[in-house]
Amino acid sequence: MSYISTDNITSINAELTNYCNAACPMCARYYIDGELVVDKVNNMHTSLTFIKEKIGEGVVKGLKNFTSCGNFGDGAMNPECLEIYTWVHEMNPNAILTLHSNGGARNSRFWSDLAKLKVNVNVAVHVHVNVDARDPLNMKIKDITFDVHHDKRIRNAQMRRKQFVLTPNSKLRVWVLDVLKNEGYIRNYEIEKSVSGTDIIKVALKYFDGEPVIKELKRVSTPGRRVYLGADNLPKVRQGLGVAIVSTSKGIMSDAQARQSRVGGEVLCTVF
Which of 34, 69, 95, 226 is the most buried (most CB within 10 A)? Predict the structure, then answer.
């Protein structure tokens, strides 16, 4: 008879879920042995009750590290993610908690509540953000500020000829999508509920003769370098064949609309 002793376990890497809201073509959850499997995956979450029963207080109290490794899912997508980390902290205030996430699955309140574990009780909470997987994201956690932005989400989906792509809901994203729709770059979008109960936007991508309508999407203004231009200085993307999306005092609009309205503003991105 053999058994595994739990006396010397100091680190646990837990898969909290096999669900992810990103669309990274290099990820194992999308391709296995060359076969696209993401649509065949049954989404499952590890519950707090399961962790209490299978790991137990005794093991948790001896840990130095507790990590949601995210090999096959984004730990933040587990509906009980915060409750799990809170319980681990309560059992072991000295444990280092690590969450691997693309950072876009939850709202700012979730990240703030997670950060309270560090601020209030001296637990080091590390959030590893994968910038290959998500849309522009601004999260403020107490004194910690994440400014993660990139333009790969739509491109990743188009590389795989996906008809739809999901993105976290926000007023800014909706206003930008309104411009993209009006300019003919996307078919449509709608707001839905995610598995975790948060609002997400389902964007219907557009193709012509099998090729993506959006050839290039570039972020211009960033948190570290805001770009403000007057109406006369707004860029003409590809000699007017593309569009610059501008945040003005009259709302989010294309560069052509801004020039017609004689207003300048912050240049958010360019599309071609």
Answer: 95
